[in-house]
Specification:
about 260 residues, alpha+beta, 2 domains, about 35% strand
């Protein structure tokens, strides 16, 4: 009987400790599951603000066109102001909305981690294998601003090195004329090296190949940015970077982002 009382006393004393441990464990798990929420919320806020700014810009541009069509000289001055302000708002909204995408993706990736994101390593054979990178970007330079898509099938040698063969159809905003085609199509060998094995990995890359459409010649590109790994069981990643590229007929630089399957 005496031993039974001792055992009951020990159990009574240990019960609060076990409860506190359970609460601490649940709280830790909850923190892990919402560790990316601040970053994601900031990104969603940026996207919403960018969308609102774009709507404002579109409305001002519409007012500008309307004032220009029905007004006299004074109204035409107002039309020019509306159009300029609207274009600036539209551009600012697009930039803000596009900038929000990496933040939202990174926040989601952090939320999906089984542990605190900085404790997880992306290593092993599951990080190797064939892959496909799809990217889009905006560049400025000579001869003018342009939009670009990049399609790069290739192979993940390990968690650090990716090699592939890419094509980058690019459309300039300049008007076509007798000596100029507003379209370029470089075909190139692509290599990227990611530093570290964590969720966020800085990387550098280079491409060497040929411009095949406008003034065919040697093509070369350099890029550097951030890789956000999205899975421990595959090489799925989100890439965002600054890019510079050149061939005989152009030199341009800008930003791009994309997804690796």
């Amino acid at each position: 009987m005496k031993y039974l009382r001792v055992i009951l006393l020990v159990l009574v004393l240990m019960a609060p400790m076990a409860a506190r441990a359970q609460v601490a464990g649940d709280d830790q798990q909850a923190r892990k599951e919402r560790q990316g929420l601040p970053l994601k919320a900031f990104g969603v806020g940026m996207a919403a603000t960018g969308g609102g700014t774009m709507l404002l810009g579109g409305a001002l541009i519409g007012l500008g066109y309307y004032a220009g069509r029905v007004g006299q000289s004074e109204e035409n001055m107002a039309a020019a102001i509306f159009l300029a302000t609207g274009a600036a708002c539209l551009a600012a909204g697009v930039i803000e909305a596009v900038t929000s995408v990496p933040l939202i993706v990174a926040g989601n990736a952090m939320n999906k981690c089984d542990d605190y994101w900085n404790n997880i390593y992306y290593i092993g054979p599951q990080q190797s294998g064939f892959g496909l990178i799809l990217e889009g970007g905006f560049l400025i330079g000579m001869p003018g601003p342009c939009v670009q898509a990049r399609i790069v099938p290739g192979y993940n040698v390990n968690q650090h090195l990716f090699v592939g063969l890419g094509v980058a159809p690019t459309m300039d905003f300049e008007e076509a004329h007798e000596d100029y085609i507003p379209f370029t199509l470089p075909v190139y060998a692509d290599a990227r090296y990611s530093f570290g094995n964590k969720l966020f990995a800085p990387y550098i890359g280079a491409g060497v190949g040929m411009e095949t459409v406008y003034d065919p010649n040697v093509y070369f590109s350099l890029e550097g940015g951030l890789r956000v790994r999205l899975s421990q069981s595959s090489a799925r990643s989100f890439w965002v970077s600054a890019l510079a590229e050149t061939s005989a007929a152009y030199f341009r630089s800008g930003v791009k982002m994309g997804y690796a399957f």
